[in-house]
Amino acid sequence: MLPGRSPPTRRKSNQVDQMSDEINKSNTVKARLPRGLADRGPAELAATHRMMNAIRESYELHGFEAVETPFIEYTETLGKFLPDLDRPNEGVFSFQDDDEQWLSLRYDLTAPLARYVAEHFDKLPKPYRSYRSGFVFRNEKPGPGRFRQFMQFDADTVGSASVAADAEICMMASHTIEKLGVKRGEYVIKVNNRKVLDGVLEAAGLSGEGRAAQKLIVLRAIDKLDRLGTDGVRLLLGPGRKDESGDFTKGADLSSAAIDRILDFTAARASDNRITIDNLAKAVGSSMQGQEGVAELAEMVRLFEASGYGDGRIVIDPSVVRGLEYYTGPVYEAELTFEVKDEHGRPVRFGSVGGGGRYDGLVARFRGEPVPATGFSIGVSRLLSALRLINSPIVTGEAMKGPVVVLVMDQSEIARYQTFVAQLRNAGIRAELYLGSAGMNAQLKYADKRGSVCAIIQGSNERDKGEIIIKDLIAGAQVAAAAKDMDRNEYLALKARAQFAVAETGLLASVNEVLARYESW
Amino acid sequence: MLPGRSPPTRRKSNQVDQMSDEINKSNTVKARLPRGLADRGPAELAATHRMMNAIRESYELHGFEAVETPFIEYTETLGKFLPDLDRPNEGVFSFQDDDEQWLSLRYDLTAPLARYVAEHFDKLPKPYRSYRSGFVFRNEKPGPGRFRQFMQFDADTVGSASVAADAEICMMASHTIEKLGVKRGEYVIKVNNRKVLDGVLEAAGLSGEGRAAQKLIVLRAIDKLDRLGTDGVRLLLGPGRKDESGDFTKGADLSSAAIDRILDFTAARASDNRITIDNLAKAVGSSMQGQEGVAELAEMVRLFEASGYGDGRIVIDPSVVRGLEYYTGPVYEAELTFEVKDEHGRPVRFGSVGGGGRYDGLVARFRGEPVPATGFSIGVSRLLSALRLINSPIVTGEAMKGPVVVLVMDQSEIARYQTFVAQLRNAGIRAELYLGSAGMNAQLKYADKRGSVCAIIQGSNERDKGEIIIKDLIAGAQVAAAAKDMDRNEYLALKARAQFAVAETGLLASVNEVLARYESW
Q: Rounded to two decimals, what is the model's pTM?
């Protein structure tokens, strides 16, 4: 035995004694999952697998390489989440190590990347372009479609200050979404820039550190444009707004000139990115920061056009403010535009399936100096549910059929049945011996439940003749369903397809013949 | 926007304010991982990916279907681990939910499967044949090669009492290990049976519940056969043994007839499974339980032979006692037999990479009645390190080459360079624009660090002529290394291969020409 980990045991030995006396009816444990967690069966796993492979291929095509970090990090690594003793699990799942240091389950893939880059900074190629996927955990109240464990798929470029890095990630997002089966016109990549908004706010007289709270009110007001319309947002930018229930929301108390400037900005999106850029250039006025942001967006538009993405798939949209308080430069959001019904049955856009932006403070927490970085995160489960809605081939790709099932008609002949299974497996055909103790009908029902196409039967009659019966379970179901509506010849032909006897030596050829009748075997 | 989860943000918004003021040199966080956790880079991830795919294919060939459970379960689901308040994390990572219930990270894939089967019992096909893989967590002292997060790959058949289920898993283990590149003769699947041992103990006068402690001493003594030899174990089965340091280990105090019977049992392994079975039949004497166990092993041997596994790959070996106190019937262990050096430089067998057995109490904790079950677990990381030692194609398969790198010789021409990148990507060639700000030599070093085969360069001279320079980085390295030892014609030929100018329109053809020179692009 090598030094190190002892071979995997199925269960830790110190549990054995504890468990052996637990088995009695009066003392059973309820089989249940904690809220906000879910099991996944073969169809969902296969779809997820195909989807992840497609994303991985797209990211590698764009020059990103794989990296993986563990699920557990020091709590301080993840941010200022040092749990207080009263609510140690606020937002994240945390626990103390045996040396009293706090550990947490990662809640995204960005903070661990920052730790990884900072720890291995000198040996990494720079810029460092990486992708990673995996589960993240949120200790929040779960709800419908809202889980406490869910999967993200991220790509980041660390160490590049160039907006070419941001433009590339927007184009990669577009490319990836199309590879997943979303058609052009069913999605849009929206781009904004924190510096442009800051410039507009500066031009509106809202600059300086003391204005942080007021800025936040402005951001939140803009985010409500969809819901409240221009008039509602105008109130929130000004004196405040009373909603239908009579609740009053305090406003940002801006002058009416400042309000006009902000609303002009939010309305700057035009049908052509270049016109949007011109509108934004006016909105930021003489603000240096604003002009810098507009120049960055203009450069990104140039790169989109040079790469064949100048056809409206990627849109400069100043109404995107999500995350703007956090990001430091360009922000982007991938939105699916097809309609679905909301909880009240009203048609709404499906909405965002991913987003990201430039955050130059990413690695700075560890290295003490800013390191430019930009990245993008896909919400895998949410995107998968979108792909279901549009019947993407990724999810509709017919589920893999079940294995060929060799029935057990006589328990004393199991070794003989096992030779049939072995022949099939040696030929690369998924196959199994029925391992239960039920009779023939239940065995055939089992094969149906597994989604099998084909079953092999040998009773004592067949055995004496050196024969086996091949059952085509799909044709068999057709016989049962359609017998009444068929003429006799049709019926007999179908029946002959559904079940026929062959010599034992013909097993492989006959099974192959049946499997070839159906796709996605 | 659909109801439910809000679109993925890269970071929780409540952290933003906390983080923005953290960035200054005096207040940095150390970038480090907690003990016993590890990051994984692209080469290891690619090898793991190939390995997991091979295992998955083998398991599906054998008729097992995928299932996945979450990482977090109720602590009571996992076993009687209810944390006491002084040491809440003994063995497992545990934390309290906001409703005070204890949650834990799974420490294996078996306990969650039991919960899953019990929860969905009525809708599952029975027997239920499933596989699952993923990380498990142990809150233990880490050591070399011993991690607190590691990966397992399990397969289980639940609801079958037939030893054909056990035999199948042994054969599947053999098939899988060979698919991973381990040659016949470099591994063995060892099989034993709890009932045989119990029968031998019964025949030795050690039956009855009051003898549990004594039985455990016997099991532990047998487990030391390798290290202590027959004489040492004889002492441990009898009065006890003093080791070299003078420490005394209490013995099982068996009669010398009983000791002989047990040592006959441990020596029962013969070169042929059928002879071993005969030896075991003698060792269990008239014990009913022992005879039942021997009959089960005999039936398994018959099935191995019927399936073409009768050639010594699977061996009945009574010295396997690992887990026997836990399992209720057949147990099996996959052992790699090639030699490696232990920590003292002595040659030892690599040892176990997986194991399992029949445990009919698996689902009973939840359902109150025994449900027959048998399963197998592979230690993925340990197996991967074994595959490295034998240079399996799974791990040696040449690492994917890096993307084609388009150099940036003039920042104002980025859009032009981007068109080159877009052309390559549209042709399915992994490619990227250099996104940093360094000069040409550093850019070429970057491409080397990425493992790239090919770089594209266009300075102002080339641009004026409508040309690009294609650099073959591998040939370039050969030129640099071998220039002195070459005659002038050879040198010039190699140099012409390593770097040449073509018209811009020849980009794709020339890159394809360079890539075709090398494998595993």
A: 0.88
